Amino acid sequence: MGDRGNIKLVGKQCFPHPLYLYTHWGGSVMKDSLAEALAKGERWGDPQYLSRIIFQTLLRGDDGATGYGLSTVLCDNEHLLLVVDLDAKTIWEEAEPGYETGKGSIRKPISFDEFLKQHKPKKEGD
Known about the structure:
By secondary structure, the chain is of the alpha+beta class. It has 3 helices and 6 strands; from the N terminus they run E-E-H-H-E-E-E-E-H. The chain is 24% helix and 25% strand.
């Protein structure tokens, strides 16, 4: 059991090969986590920092030995991949080979700003 999901980081400048941020329990709230990370508004132009901010937001302070991971290949997944192009500052969703994107998925790249308009981050206490 679980709620496995991945954020796929791409960008030719710092990520010539994709980096997958894996969550075992947070797949269904990945958009919320990404929106929270982007809403910090810092480091959009620094891919290595922004990737850390995104992963740190996924962790939500969990420093245990299970539940999260990093990989250069997709290993385990139950949701559409949330793709973040750190160079173009765009986001879209893609399905694994053999699967279809569903209704309501982000099929064309949208800007970080547009993503934040569509997925307002939750504030503490919400």
